[in-house]
Amino acid sequence: MKTLVTGASGFVGSALCARLVGEDLAVFGAVRHLPAKNIVGVDYRIIPDMSSETNWSDALTGVNAIVHCAARVHVMQDTADDPLVVFRKVNVEGTVRLAKQAVDCGIKRFVYISSLKANGEYTEGVPFKADDVPEPDDPYSISKWEAEQALNEIAMETGLEVVIIRPPLVYGEGVRANFLRLMQAIKLGLPLPLGAIKNRRSLVALDNLVDLIVTCLRHKAAINQTFLVSDGEDLSTPELLTRVAHTMKRTACLFSVPVPLLIKIASILGKVGFASRLCSSLQADINKTQNLLGWSPPVSVDEALQKTTDYFLSH
């Protein structure tokens, strides 16, 4: 198997490249520019941008499988006049261009890393299933769902073996954004007004996501399927913070503020999106993934959190 990983210098892409190289597989990494730390064994190919005009021919030479991790992701303060147009250019048109050129090159399998947000923004007691009717509600998630639809059409027309994976929040060594901010707050012993939150959220450790991707590259039953992924254990926000603090040998300084008041304060501060994610539930049902592929998360939540915080503390 000779695999092209797009977004090979990113959080998921770099971990996947390292895993594939560790299994003595040929790995090509599509990147916008060479990473500061190359992974020995990865043959990097420069792809400056991703759109309907991108020429992937150099990157696809000698490849028989693709894992498409590259995407335009959330932009917290998006200045685009119409963000959906920009998201579509990269996440939809760019993906379609790659898939069609892959077909022309005789590539067989295309694993697409989508997002649980394609299902919807939150759940209320019942976890999302892979075969639920998607209800994306922001430009990013809409573009991911539209890319999924386009890929499925290409699969039906050409025989390309498309596999779609929708992860929730991914954490692991080198995680950034909100997860990093929470770890920093715990390390500093900052009091957090999150003790009253009673939600359930699915997360996925980077090692678990990578393991599923590798499974989907190989498994016959994965062809033309959509899979949800998680660690198999959903946590409330206070539980997550308590578990993270335990890995640091600290105590999470939590106090309780009623959730409606918390959201109101966050709205005044311009942080309503962040607060909503901390307070709401977003659960993934991974039974289909487990039953169809015979897959289970190889790393427990506590093991993954320990690995994540060890890296954080040492860097």
Secondary-structure blueprint:
Blueprint: E1 2-6, H1 11-22, E2 26-31, E3 42-46, H2 57-60, E4 65-68, H3 83-104, E5 109-113, H4 139-158, E6 161-166, E7 169-171, H5 177-188, E8 203-205, H6 206-218, E9 225-228, H7 237-247, H8 259-268, H9 272-279, H10 287-293, H11 301-314
Parallel strand pairs: 1-2, 1-4, 2-3, 4-5, 5-6, 6-9, 7-8
Beta-strand percentage? 5-15%
Helix/strand order, N-terminal first: EHEEHEHEHEEHEHEHHHHH
Biggest pleated-sheet summary: 7 strands, parallel
Radius of gyration: 20 Å
**Number of helical elements:** 11
Low-confidence stretches: none
Structure description:
With 315 residues, the protein is of the alpha/beta class. Helices cover 42% and strands 13% of the residues. The protein has eleven helices and nine strands. Helix 5 links the parallel strand 7 (169-171) and strand 8 (203-205). Helix 1 (11-22) crosses helix 6 (206-218), helix 3 (83-104) packs parallel to helix 4 and helix 8 packs antiparallel against helix 9 (272-279). The chain starts with a strand and ends with a helix.
Question: What keyword list fits this structure?
Answer:
single chain; 315 residues; alpha/beta; seven-stranded parallel β-sheet; two-stranded parallel sheet; 42% helix; 13% strand; globular
What's this model, at a glance?
Helices cover 42% and strands 13% of the residues. The chain has 315 residues and is an alpha/beta fold. The two termini are 35 Å apart.
